[in-house]
Design goal:
The protein is mainly alpha-helical and 386 residues long. Helices cover 77% and strands 1% of the residues.
Length: 386
Amino acid sequence: MKVENVLSRTIEIWLRIFGIWPDSSCISLRRLFWIIALAIEQIFHYQYIIIHFYSIEFFEVMGILGETMTFSIIIIKIVTFWCKQRTFCNMLMMMAIDSEKCSSREFSMSVMTRNAKLSRRFANLTLGLYSMAVILHSSHIIVKHTGDDKISNTSTRALVMDMNLPFDLNQTYVYVLIIIIQFAHVLLCSCANGLLNALLINLTLHIGGQIDILCEWLMDIFPIKEKHKPNVIIIKKIIKKHQQIIKFSEYIEDMYSNIALALFVSDTLIICCLGFVIVTSVGTPDAVKIIMRTLLFYFVMNMEAFAFCFAGEYLSTKSNSIGDAAYNSFWYESNSKNNQITLFLIMRSQKQLTITIGKVTNLSLEQFTSIIKASASYISVLLAMN
């Protein structure tokens, strides 16, 4: 089954590149390649921080640490999707089935089409923002090397990512090759990181659309305030739809709960590091260059935390609408058997569908504000220590 009607093609391409999409060609080789590439990047990156911790400015250490932790969270996301391959396949199958069933109903099709367009727009926006962030973050290479004479000067050579590489950068072609490889690596990983966040929004919008369809069914099953005996088959269909929504929500929770826990901790620290770099750069000779290089990176990390928290808030709010739709219908005008079934549905919908942070607490916009507050507090502490 195909899910091109409900899942962004941009997301699918990136999932194939990183060996996440089911039935991709050479999926084992792709995963092996990224394991080696990301492991090498992390080793050289953290090694550089350890070696140069006392030899460079503190705000530079914080900036490099923010970059390194970003790649650490990318590894956690990708490995989680590899380990949860069966769950991801089940979600894609359910999305494909929902798309096929909705093709014969005008309201259902309009809901699916609207959410699919929103998902594609958000995925394309995410891809553009993360690509621009990588380009601006790598702009210091162009600033420092605007001519061949400066490229040949090994004392001024800079890398896209500061690493303790076991290569001789005195040779120009080696240096240029490393720059190209680093830039491609950062661009691919950053875009994949952003599109995995866009995938969460895509999945959440899909389940939100299914909830809208279920609410429409609930309102239509008792259309007028009179004695009415809905078809038993329709009632069973509604109950089955509700169970499928709950199951899909559990799949999202299974996929993203541990990721949300790692992201809640890492994004707080990353936002703190980048905020510290921006604040301390004010008043320095290179303030404009540093701020331009860091500001969009700071923005996309905030957007990542907001996307997760928004998804949790959206899912919880949408799940409440099921009980409201059932309660607002004229279910009480039907027979006692149908009334009991509707009451059970209302009672079950009172248990919100949520995405948790490692089974500890629910993702919500309140958690996003706590991330921002914690980051600001840490920045104040660092400024006092500096």
